[in-house]
Amino acid sequence: MPEENESLDGTNPKPAGKKKLIIIIAAAVLTLSIIGAAVFFVFFSGDPANENTAQMSEEAIAETPKVSANYVPMPRPLVFNVLEGNRDRTAQIKVQLMVVDKASETLVRKHIPLLESTLVSVFGEASAEQLRSPQGKNELRETALEALNKATTMVENRALIHTVLFTGFVLQ
How far is CA 67 from the centre of its chain? Predict the structure, then answer.
């Protein structure tokens, strides 16, 4: 009885699976090298027009003054009551304040209680109709910005806040 490695005539046959494996590996290596060459030529080709455009855009960026936006979230949402006819509604607004530099951010964080008080008084004057409409919300945002900058001007002699953002708005 022949063993598993021997054929019926007693010789060891060459495994046909090894040839297929070598051919598959060679094809995979060839395919990967073609893809690698294509990627290299596409991404690393030295197109002078693109290089000049990149240099010009870097120069333009260097010439523009850098203004960074820093956001100061109010520590807790502002909750207040709004009278609508005979019903008393509750509103909750989450506010973040955008300032233009780190110094203003530090000063705004220092005066959070003053700013919260100012926002509560501004929001408390709003009507339910104003809080429902997009135009009313924009008016409220602008009114809040003016009141906050007036308050910061009183304590720091300059307006600190660039924009008032409503990040959460619930009216029940």
Answer: 17
pTM: 0.59
Q: Which residues pair with 170 in a beta bridge?
A: 92
| 39 belongs to a structural domain | yes
User: Which residue in this structure is represented by tokens 């520590």?
Assistant: 75
> In terms of domains, do 151 and 123 share one?
yes
Q: How far is CA 79 from CA 109, 111, 161, 164, in A?
A: 20, 19, 22, 17
Write out pLDDT tens, residues 24-65.
898 888 888 888 887 777 777 655 555 555 555 555 555 545
Q: What are phi and psi of 93, to 5 degrees?
A: -130, 130
Work out how many domains the chain is built from and give that number: 2
d(CA 164, CA 172): 22
In the 8-state DSSP scheme, what is residue 6?
A: S
Question: In angstroms, rounded to a whole number, what is the distance separating the alpha carbons of residues 133 and 152?
Answer: 28
